[in-house]
Specification:
With 285 residues, the chain is mainly α. The protein has two domains: 120 residues, Orthogonal Bundle (Endonuclease Iii, domain 2); 101 residues, Endonuclease III, domain 1. The protein contains twelve helices and no strands. The longest helix is centred in the first third of the chain and has 18 residues. It is globular, with a radius of gyration of 20 Å. It comes from Streptomyces luteoverticillatus. Its cofactor is [4Fe-4S] cluster. It holds the Pfam family EndIII_4Fe-2S.
């Protein structure tokens, strides 16, 4: 097993402390980590990720709440890249909820076919568009209790839309987020709503949306499901699951994805401060 990296210095560090050791809760025979220690460690991880991913952002291309809602529904069981490659033609054909509500199902299915499960997704898109047209005046509502009444929209999708289109704080529990917060021992829950509640309790509300982006970025780039790049992880000293993946620094670097590995990201139109390359349009990979 490789040697655990020293803690990365952060701008918020006020003293020259020795490297952070493996969390007490992870040491053999050690007593369980206290609630206070857990909160401190979780918040330090968030600060470290904020420096590493200062450019963290939603990885779906969108220009308005309706586009983000549709893109998020399409992102189920596929990559954000595939959604971003699919939505330009989709939004050109159906720019408003009224347009999509009147769509011919077969035509819509063919447009979104690259995202998979296209029949079920087309049904949801038409259904939510009809609801937006008939119940919300053609506008995407800015309340979670309204959003989750739309076909194909659950808490995860609602929190994505609220946090990124309306500025309403929320934690987005996708597969990456759930995997990482369990590895970090922030929760042992599997149910997304319980995970959301446990994580929200560790942070001030103002951090929830950006925390979601940072954790998801880290999960996609470094802390992978099958083989996390532990040896290249900037928060390794704070991780009680260090060693589950590759610990050799050079081997770990080869596992890094997207801009961390020198390859394009998932957005065709990334933010101006994104340090990587934009993705290619559909068919141009």
């Amino acid at each position: 097993m490789g040697e655990r990296p020293a803690a990365k210095k952060t701008k918020s560090a006020k003293t020259n402390k020795s490297p952070v050791e493996k969390p007490a809760a992870a040491k053999a025979g050690a007593k369980a980590e206290s609630r206070t220690a857990l909160v401190r460690r979780a918040r330090r991880i968030n600060r470290e990720l904020a420096e590493v991913y200062s450019y963290a952002h939603p990885e779906l291309d969108f220009e308005n709440p309706f586009q983000l809602l549709v893109a998020t529904v399409l992102s189920a069981q596929t990559t954000d890249l595939r959604v971003n490659q699919t939505t330009p033609a989709l939004f050109a054909a159906y720019p408003t909820p009224e347009d999509m509500a009147a769509a011919d199902p077969e035509t819509l299915e063919q447009l979104i076919r690259p995202t998979g499960f296209f029949r079920a997704k087309a049904k949801s898109l038409i259904g939510l568009s009809v609801a937006l047209r008939d119940r919300f005046g053609g506008e995407v509502p800015g309340r979670l209790e309204d959003l989750v009444t739309l076909p194909g929209v659950g808490r995860k999708t609602a929190n994505v839309v609220l946090g990124n289109a309306f500025g309403v704080p929320g934690v987005t529990v996708d597969t990456h987020f759930g995997r990482l917060v369990r590895r970090w021992k922030w929760t042992d829950a599997e149910d997304p709503e319980k995970v959301e509640a446990d994580v929200c309790a560790l942070f001030p509300k103002s951090e929830w949306t950006m925390l979601s982006h940072r954790v998801i970025f880290h999960g996609r780039r470094v802390c992978h499901s099958r083989k996390p790049a532990c040896g290249a992880c900037p928060i390794a000293p704070l991780c009680p699951s260090y060693g589950e993946g590759e610990t050799d620094p050079e081997k770990a670097k080869k596992l890094l994805k997207y801009e961390m590995g020198g390859r394009p990201g998932q957005r065709l139109k990334p933010p101006a401060d994104y340090p990587g390359l934009p993705a290619s349009p559909l068919g141009a990979e």
